[in-house]
Design a protein that fits this description.
Elements lengths: L5 E9 L3 E5 L18 E4 L6 E7 L6 E3 L11 E11 L5 E10 L6 E8 L8 E8 L3 H7 L4 E3 L3 E3 L5 E3 L8 E4 L3 E4 L2 E8 L7 E3 L10 E3 L4 E5 L11 E5 L9 E3 L4 E8 L5 E4 L2 E4 L5 H4 L5 H9 L1 H5 L5 E2 L10 H9 L2
Parallel strand pairs: 19-24
Antiparallel strand pairs: 1-4, 1-8, 2-3, 3-9, 4-5, 5-6, 6-7, 6-9, 7-8, 10-21, 11-12, 13-14, 15-21, 16-17, 16-20, 18-19, 22-23
InterPro entries: Hedgehog/Intein_dom, Hint_dom_N, Hint_dom_sf
Protein name: Hint domain-containing protein
């Protein structure tokens, strides 16, 4: 396995846990795209267990292998993104999921099929297969790692103006914490259903001393300068993923409807101010960004990758290292003089 490979932890069900309960493939587990029949109705098996499949990303998001430390799958096995499938329940609830094929040792046949839903299917609920997309799987997987701001989020410019993120343009001078005024090089935008893995994190006004409600993608990272090391990292500068702040009260998941996300890229990883709160800019590895970046931007990232990505300006807090109920309180205490 290539040294330095980026890793992704994916929550998956074995295909056998999601079977057709009505339709042409009655009784069969979810299959690969060429076996699926639109209109077939699926249901999650009672007590179905989710597994963690850790994959290492190779030269592109289409070159995945099961990581050595993965709790599920055979270490080193190639994993292929077969398709993205969309299911709909009778009440109109939709579930999008990637179908992942783990190949055998010869890489000619599927050894295990995995279902990776972006929002968990409910037990005792029937889901009709309504769409099969063979092209967008890698893009959807790449988007899970994006550091994004929702439409309307105000970003602080070098002159002090706070401008809605959707009104920014390449070349605009943005205020950054470490390097002062920096030109914005690229801005990406996409609309996603606000559910499951793509549901935004909504931080109420004032919770982190933010000037207004702050809406971020789950993977976006809030910067904290610790005056006291309450997070136990041994570092003063820490990034905390927004998803780790959810407490069900003043930090919640904004489920329902759609959300428009925006990614900001500079010449190097930067810390920018969103509603007055320090957050991380988008600085991906080219192998992870290939499905979502324009060719010209991707080529520049590959050519000048070491400079454009640089080194992370802070350490990222590990999943589970922060108790959600006290997360915002601890962050306030850690940054207090």
């Amino acid at each position: 396995m290539r040294s330095g490979s980026r890793r992704r932890r994916l929550s998956v069900y074995p295909a056998e846990a999601f079977r057709v309960v009505d339709g042409a493939n009655l009784g069969d587990p979810i299959g690969e795209a060429n076996e699926l029949v639109p209109g077939d109705v699926y249901a999650l098996s009672r007590g179905a267990r989710q597994f963690e499949l850790t994959v290492a990303v190779g030269r592109s998001m289409t070159l995945l292998r099961v990581a050595e430390s993965s709790p599920a799958g055979r270490a080193g096995a190639r994993v292929v993104i077969d398709c993205c499938a969309t299911f709909m329940a009778l009440d109109g609830t939709t579930v999008e999921a990637l179908i992942l094929a783990e190949l055998d040792a010869g890489e000619q046949h599927t050894a295990q099929l995995w279902l990776m839903p972006f929002s968990p299917p409910a037990e005792k609920t029937d889901y009709a297969l309504v769409a099969i997309d063979r092209r967008s799987g890698a893009e959807r997987l790449a988007e899970l790692g994006c550091l994004s701001f929702a439409r309307g989020t105000r970003i602080t410019l070098a002159n002090g103006e706070q401008r809605p993120v959707e009104e920014l343009r390449p070349g605009d001078m943005v205020l950054t914490r470490n390097h002062g005024a920096q030109p914005l090089r690229w801005i990406g935008a996409r609309v996603r259903r606000a559910s499951g893995a793509f549901a935004p994190i909504v931080i109420a006004r004032g919770v982190l001393n933010n000037e207004r409600e702050l809406i971020l993608s789950p993977g976006q990272r809030v910067f904290v300068y610790q005056r006291r090391d309450l997070l136990g990292t041994g570092r003063r500068e820490v990034f905390v993923p927004a998803s780790m702040l959810v407490n069900g009260r003043d930090v919640v998941r904004g489920e329902g409807g759609f959300v428009e996300y925006f990614d900001l890229m500079f010449d190097a990883p930067e810390i920018v101010y969103a509603e007055g709160i320090a957050t991380q800019s988008f600085a991906p590895a080219p192998e992870e960004a290939e499905p979502i970046l324009p060719p010209a931007v991707l080529e520049r990232l590959r050519r000048e990758g070491a400079r454009l990505r640089g080194s992370a300006p802070a350490v990222t807090l590990s999943e589970g290292a922060l108790e959600p109920e006290r997360a915002t309180e601890i962050l306030r205490l850690a940054s207090r003089a």
